[in-house]
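job 3f2a | input accepted
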Amino acid sequence: MFFNQFFYRMAGQVLVRTILTVRCARSLASASLSAVFIFCSAAAMAQGAPPPTVSVKPVTSRQVTETADFVGRVVAIDKVDIVARVPGFIKERNFNEGQQVKAGDLLFRIEQDTYKASVDQQQANLAKAKATEVNAALQLERGKELVRSQNIPQSTVDQRAADQQAAQADVMQAQALLEQAQINLGYTEIRAPIDGRIGLATFTVGNLVQPSSGRLATIVSQDPIYVTFEASERDVIAYKRRLAESGGKNQHLPIHIKLPDGTIYQHAGITNFLDVEVETNTDTVVVRAQVPNPEGLLIPGGIVGVSVDTEAPKSALVIPQAAVQFDQAGHYVLVVDDSKKVELRRVTTGVEQGRDIVVTEGLKQGELVIVEGIQKVHPGQIVSASVVSDN
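job 3f2a | predicted structure (391 res):
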């Protein structure tokens, strides 16, 4: 008895499965693909198949800032080419190429013997001129006394006065030549004029250099640093209108940098210059921002992405970009309602926020959108949903 009941039960299940399979096969020839998919899914559920599993995330609200994206170039605030100001052989080089230097650090020393000798010579000339000036002053005083007793003519006194003034001029000239010799001696020590990173040395120790030799090395400042980018006239007009509406406040806009490897630079910058004319070749206006660069990640001459905050932060609904699909009718998402049923919802999207995107129409806060498993479900289907954490 028990064996017969078991046999008939198994035979009935096989018969049902056979009928469902035949019906699915027939539907392929007579129905649309979507109808076949729905029918066969229902058939599978009739056989006890579990609902498909999908991952969902809730629609959240957060503060979002409207931005505009540009391509920028990193520019050093200060760039100095180091050159020789007096001729001579390089005796010392006191830096490693690529190192950070401070203003006043000794970089090169040119042989000083000739320049020290010139200083000594001008010191001697100055001393001689001073002695001559003293003697001329004494001769003038004696002449003034003798002219009172009429022992010498007035013309002699006048000549001695002229000699005394000429001696004073000689002292001034000797003083100037001494100062020039001292300046030239000082030029034999070439020091860093700014803080920054020094590049390759063009000349090594033992080479003869002079002002016409050109650049010995280059120093570029590192922190802070400039980033320049080109904005369209439309962007500039919109900025000026917002500025007028705010009464002239917040003239400088915050910016964020995207590095070439795709990561977001941790230090925000701020605009500090808008060019006074439009580039006729591109119909754009150059904008400059100053950005902190303590780690030296931004290298002068490099290309970076620039995101400019164009408006004050405001509350908006955001969902992961992975949830947004696109067809001929536009953007849509698949929503899982309270009864675990999938619903297709048309949405209007806004600006991207990293891996998320702003949704301006079509969703409410807290609704669950499918982010994984979209391809294996369809509207109206019952699913098993698991919420994905932000981590």
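job 3f2a | DSSP finds five helices and 24 strands in the chain.
job 3f2a | closed
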